[in-house]
Design a protein that fits this description.
There is one protein chain. By secondary structure, the chain is mostly beta strands. It has 3 domains: about 90 residues, mini-chromosome maintenance (MCM) complex, domain 2; about 110 residues, no CATH class; about 100 residues, no CATH class. About 5% of the residues lie in helices and about 40% in strands. The strands form 7 sheets. A 7-stranded antiparallel sheet has the order 11-12-19-14-15-16-17. The chain has a 6-stranded antiparallel sheet with strand order 2-10-4-5-6-7. The chain has a 5-stranded antiparallel sheet with strand order 20-27-22-23-24. A hairpin with a 3-residue loop joins strand 5 and strand 6. The longest helix has 4 residues. The chain is globular.
Amino acid sequence: MAYTTINKSTDYFNTKLYTGNGSTNAITGVGFQPDFLWIKSRSDTKNHNLWDAVRGNTKRLISNSNGAESTETSITSFDSDGFTLDSGTTSNGNSLNFASWNWKANGQGSSNTAGSINTTYTSVSTAAGFSISSYTGNGTAGATFGHGLNAVPKMMIIKQTSSNGGSENWAVYHHALGNTDALYLSTTDSTVGSNLFWNNTTPSSTLVTLGSGDHVNNNTVSYIAYCFAEITGYSKFGSYTGTGAADGAFVYTGFKPAFILQKRSNSSSTGWGMIDNTRSPSNVMKNMLLANSNAVEDTSSAPSVDFLSNGFKWRTADGWFNGGGDPHIYMAFAESPLVGTNNIPCTAR
């Protein structure tokens, strides 16, 4: 039985849907001031937009691109209950439908000096197991920076933000893959084995160790790192083996999921599927977006997953999600814990 100190998951993660108006648009109902904001049009082939409080509301990254951050005015402010948009079409196109995924850390944060690289800012919520760190690489294998979580990160997503280092894909660390492999969030590629990413070193409860590769540690180049530690009953970063059958794999998380991001790790032709309980409010859930693509929302039968009181179960034989004998990795955040500290159990759908 899972227990958690987080009784209301929406205090730290929430999905908010909205319709663009092509003008000033105040989005409310998030429940907190977002420190990491991810936006994607559901109805049009617009790029993903990723913003955070560490880099500031004028700096945008694109998860389906290897490009550096750009200066945009689309987000005019992070607000106490959401965010305010300007007229930018990729996040506020008139009459377009959008999904936004919101995470809470701790504002802009402050420098972390625990490692050999001092972060410019590290914004951290130890309660939610989430931190955002900005740093400048030094090109040295074995360099470290402090993530501030006081727990071992189970998943990390790192992106070069400045343009002086060329164009590099988003680097993903996942503990199920180990410290010798990485994935690219911005592509369909399978795992890449190299010590250039993590220097074959598992992150500790205080430090992330980097290799000398350009994706994570090019000299004088700026980076942003999103680090996640597991919080029982709120977040899970795991793996599963597909069954290849329509009555597919069940994955135990210890909570009813609100959101999952998954990738078949041994395939070079499968993307990063994003499914949440807001776009798909009832089982079987089929509304999927791809983190590595600007494609419109897929509502076909391919994704087909049930969100249950203690995990999720695939209802498809599709190789993207449930390939027979194939390894898949995922990140998941809770709608509600199986049992919280108030001893109120969640219920199935």
